[in-house]
Design goal:
single chain; 290 residues; alpha/beta; Rossmann fold; ten-stranded mixed beta sheet; 23% helix
């Protein structure tokens, strides 16, 4: 846990059975009393070839539990090596995709288990994720709109060939123009391990704009940023609506979590003065499930 995160939560190890497979997650539970309707839940999916502990360090989302904002759940993907797990996000990635892992079923089972253990608000189940985890968050939005209220993917595209969500799902996306793993403009990233051909980020977002019934012409505004070499533009479709779609495009940013120091220089630059976590928390607050 980062030194700037107060000690306001406890960590629970969860294990759930999905089909013939045992699955697990780390859960950060606030020590504060729950709100009257129960705790909001944030499902935070790690990147490909990663694991829950790394996602905790990478994203800093523990802060939401420490400040009593929500329960934060870090699910574990699948793979033969515990430190190199992946998600079946669609056309990516690795063993999870190749083995047809039922990760949507896992998310449902995990939320059910949380509901038996903790007072949670079923209308405030949200998802975020990094890279391959972002793809998983998109898959939940597309296939489990009855479960998740809104999603906030970071540095990972929509990896499904087509989507037919059950309802308009609000989307908040963060992406860097210098991402060499899941390129902003699509294609195969220069540093990609899987050599997956990714959809362009805006193409995927325009799929959501269409499905959510929004005007395809967005609003645009610059966002202040003091990091040298990085500029940020906020691009929004249907702003303020129940199905709004928002993109923070970080020109000069890499395959990183805005506001966090990346664990490897291979990931590229990060906008340290621009913290994604308060924006994600506020977005989720605005969008309970109808």
């Amino acid at each position: 846990m980062s030194a700037d995160v107060p000690d306001g939560f406890s960590v629970i190890d969860l294990a759930v059975r999905v089909g013939a497979r045992d699955r697990s997650a780390l859960v950060c539970r606030p020590t504060a009393p729950p709100p009257p309707g129960g705790w909001p839940v944030v499902l935070a999916f790690h990147g490909g070839r990663s694991h829950p502990d790394m996602m905790r360090r990478f994203s800093g989302l523990d802060v939401l539990a420490a400040h009593g904002r929500s329960v934060v759940c870090y699910p574990a993907g699948t793979g033969t090596r515990e430190s190199m797990l992946t998600w079946n996000g669609g056309n990516c990635c690795g063993e999870a995709r190749d083995g047809g892992a039922d990760d949507v079923g896992f998310a449902r089972a995990l939320v059910d288990d949380l509901g038996r253990r903790l007072p949670v608000d079923p209308r405030r189940i949200h998802a975020t994720g990094m890279s391959n985890g972002a793809m998983m968050a998109y898959r939940l939005a597309a296939e489990a709109g009855d479960l998740v209220a809104a999603v906030a993917p970071v540095a990972g595209p929509l990896a499904l060939e087509s989507i037919r969500p059950a309802r308009p799902v609000p989307i908040l996306h963060f992406h860097g123009s210098l991402d060499q793993f899941t390129p902003l403009e699509g294609g195969v990233g220069r540093r990609s391990v899987t050599r997956t051909h990714h959809r362009a980020i805006r193409d995927g977002l325009l799929e959501w704009v269409r499905c959510n019934g929004l005007d395809p012409e967005p609003s645009r505004e610059p966002v202040p940023c003091t990091d040298e070499g990085i500029g940020i533009e906020r691009i929004a479709w249907g702003e303020g609506s129940a199905g709004e779609v928002i993109l923070y495009e970080l020109t000069g940013g890499g395959h990183t979590w805005p506001g966090r120091v990346p664990e490897s220089f291979y990931l590229g630059p990060s906008a340290l003065s621009f913290d994604a976590n308060p924006l994600i928390a506020a977005f989720f607050d605005r969008h309970p499930r109808p």
